[in-house]
Design the sequence.
């Protein structure tokens, strides 16, 4: 399977990239980013896109891939709804439309988050925008679309892009996994779930943590 990956300079994207490099069923990863991820591996190809608003200009370079793992994202802290929508919804949909135009028989996997609001009417701004993005993606005519809603994720050993919060809390992973099993997973499980869903399919379009754990074991 040949994969397009975004967000590799962030924690989730880097973790998924590491799982793709580990998995023998993934033969190539096209890392699409605004800057180089500074990783050297035979499976990695890089496509530097300074402005994701102009992704359509790079459509031909996205051609020939079986799946897209869209892990790019940003916190809503300090942003109003219009700003967050422009980054979370507009850029994601523009990217998906471009991929669809050259790989119509491919799978699109989107990293959302626990608490995302599919009704688009809740009180939490970020949850509404994420829900709107999920709904729009699911309506697109890809071969398959999956939206992943991870909660707390234990970083994979060796990850560089890990926030201090995750480094500190990650040390108590076994305890929190025991207390909050429905909200805890490892980055390796998230990456494995995305790969397995793209290759083997999954019965749900939206995967909560328990579904991610199930998909990871397939």
Sequence:
């Amino acid at each position: 399977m040949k994969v397009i990956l975004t967000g590799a300079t962030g924690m989730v994207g880097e973790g998924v990239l590491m799982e793709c490099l580990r998995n023998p069923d993934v033969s190539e990863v096209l890392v699409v980013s605004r800057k180089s991820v500074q990783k050297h591996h035979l499976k990695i190809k890089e496509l530097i896109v300074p402005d994701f608003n102009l992704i359509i200009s790079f459509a031909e370079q996205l051609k020939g891939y079986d799946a897209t793992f869209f892990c790019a994202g940003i916190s809503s802290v300090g942003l109003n709804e219009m700003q967050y929508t422009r980054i979370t919804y507009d850029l994601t949909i523009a990217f998906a439309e471009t991929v669809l135009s050259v790989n119509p028989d491919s799978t699109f996997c989107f990293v959302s988050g626990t608490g995302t609001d599919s009704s688009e009417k809740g009180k939490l701004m970020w949850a509404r925008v994420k829900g709107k993005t999920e709904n729009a993606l699911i309506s697109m005519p890809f071969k398959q679309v999956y939206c992943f809603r991870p909660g707390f994720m234990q970083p994979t050993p060796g990850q560089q892009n890990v926030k201090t919060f995750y480094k500190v809390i990650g040390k108590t992973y076994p305890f929190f996994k025991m207390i909050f099993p429905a909200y805890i997973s490892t980055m390796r499980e998230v990456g494995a779930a995305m790969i397995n869903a793209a290759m083997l399919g999954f019965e749900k379009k939206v995967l909560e943590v328990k579904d991610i754990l199930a998909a990871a074991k397939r």
In short: The helical segments are 11-22, 81-102, 125-138, 164-170, 173-179, 187-200, 209-216.
